[in-house]
Amino acid sequence: MGRKQIKKTGSAAKKHWKVSEKVILIVAILLLLLGGIAIAGRVMVSTRFLGDSTLQDGQLSADIQTPSELQGRLLNLLVVGVSDDPEERESTKLTDTIMVVSVNIEDQKVNILQIPRDTYVGDETANHKINAIYGQNPDNWDYAGLDGLSQMIYDQFQVTIDHYVTIQMDGFRDMIDAIGGVTMDVPVDMELNGTYVEAGTQTLNGDQAIAVVRTRNVYANADIGRLQTQKIFMSALLEKVMSLSVDQMASLVPTLLGYMTTDLTVEDCLGLYYLVRGMTSDDITAVTCPGEGVTVSGQSCWGLYHERTAIILNELFRPFAETPDISSDDLGIYDVVAEPYISEDEDFGLGTMTDYASE
């Protein structure tokens, strides 16, 4: 299909194709991980860290990785946020955040594809949603664990996966405390599970930060109000991360490693950290897979749009001639919703991290 140029302006469109509030948090954590490992581990560049227990052979399949002719120019990371917070749910290993972080090494750009956790995957999971794959038993399901999740993403989007990072989201509290808190202007008084936060500029500890990003009953517009507060918090968090000294970054490694698994080596982290560190937020673009909500067998799922998804993938995730454009027919997306007509002047609302932080 011919490549459709995507415009990146228009606040109304941004609200429609909004990036999840957790994306900026994950990016901040990922930068912390890369930086801390890179700084603390210079003398052990070949070291690998704790691998993910759900991988069948201990590593991702070579069949879904970037071809050799593009290695050194393009690198794709599968980044997964796993939530086992006992305050939220029982231990089910649901993946609350799933995204592909595509690093264009040649052009020094980062593009992030957020895959909604409720994305419909047919009968490949009991709840029909992609977020259940990671916790499934490989003896009972074709797609299970990190193997199955990475394979599903490759099958649906034809995007290669070279490495992975999993992050336990219940480490959020400890991470905020480890960096000395986050300073922000809290818009309203709020309370969550006995933790009270007053309105005004202050430095939040871990418990207070959780209250700020989770509370929604204090806003007249509920989730919309919470989303705006979360964006303010994530912007403040990213600013704090970028301000940390070498010694502070190194001191965070023990805390952070307890909440992650990855197949990256220290050498990999060094390269990625210094590449990303030299970028500005204008060099980082984030987009959520377009679609709409649909109910299937009593489950509320996210049905993906074929054409719009193909356009986004071609624009952001297939930057070189060796990764030729794909058509919507090439994707393995499940056909569960009717996609609206795409007008010639449609604004897809792609925005850089600067755009989202400044709203």
Automatic annotation (TrEMBL):
Residues 95-242 form the Cell envelope-related transcriptional attenuator domain. Pfam families: LytR_cpsA_psr (PF03816). InterPro entries: LytR/CpsA/Psr_CW_biosynth, LytR_CpsA_psr. NCBIfam families: lytR_cpsA_psr. Belongs to the LytR/CpsA/Psr (LCP) family. PANTHER family: POLYISOPRENYL-TEICHOIC ACID--PEPTIDOGLYCAN TEICHOIC ACID TRANSFERASE TAGU (PTHR33392). This is LCP family protein. It comes from Candidatus Egerieicola faecale.
